[in-house]
Write a structure and sequence with these properties.
Elements: H1 3-12, H2 19-32, H3 34-41, E1 51-55, H4 61-67, E2 74-79, H5 82-91, H6 93-97, E3 101-105, E4 118-124, H7 133-143, E5 144-154, H8 164-172, H9 180-189, E6 193-199, E7 206-211
Parallel strand pairs: 1-2, 1-4, 2-3, 4-5
Antiparallel strand pairs: 5-7, 6-7
Helix pairs in contact: 1-2
Length: 212
Amino acid sequence: MNEKEKSITEQGNPAKPTGTAGEQMLTRMNVSHYDVTGWALDFIKLSGNETVLDIGCGGGETLRRMSEKITSGHLTGLDYSPVSVKMSSQHNAGSISAGKMNIVEASVEKMPFNDDSFDRIITVESFYFWKNPPENLKEVHRVLATGGIFLIVADIHGGSELTDKELENIRKYNLYNPAPEEFHELLVNAGFKDVKIHTKAGTNWICAEGRK
C-alpha cells in the first residue's frame, strides 16, 4: 500500500466506510480481495437455487461473483455503512433491477431477517471489525437455514507470520484477528457443526467454515 492508498484508507475508515475516500477504498478492495475471495468461494458450493447472504458486502464484488452462479435463487447484501450499501447497489444494479438481489443497511448485531432465512452466508474481510464476535456469530447461526453453510474469509489470521505493516494495521484499527484454533472454538460455541478451518499454503489466507 503506497502513501496515497494509506491516506485514503485512513480517511475512508475500513471499519465503516465513509465519504469519497470510503468509495475509493471500496473500489480498491473489490480488486485487492479478489483472489482470496475466489479461493474461498470454492467452499461455498453454489448450485444455483440457494438464498445467499453476504455480511459486510462492501463494494459488492463478492455478491457480483456469486450472482454468476445463482440462477433461480436470491442474493442479499448487508452492510451497516451507507457508503457500502450505495457502492454494492451500483456495482450490482443489473441483478437488483432483475429482482435477483437486494442490499440492506443493517448490522450483524441484529439482522432484519427471520430464523433459517439463508442457505449460504459469507463474510469477506469484515470479521475483523465485528463488535462482539461470540454473540454476533449466534445471530448468524440464527438466520442460517438448517443444512446451510457459513464462511468467514480473511487474508490474515492470528496464527500466521505477519509483516510489520500488517501488525501495525491490527493495532491501528483494533482488528480482531483470531488464530485457526480460535476460529474453530468460536464457531462451535456459537452452535455451528462440522466446523472446518481451511488455509492455503504460501499465504496467510483463512476460511473458517461452519454448518447448521
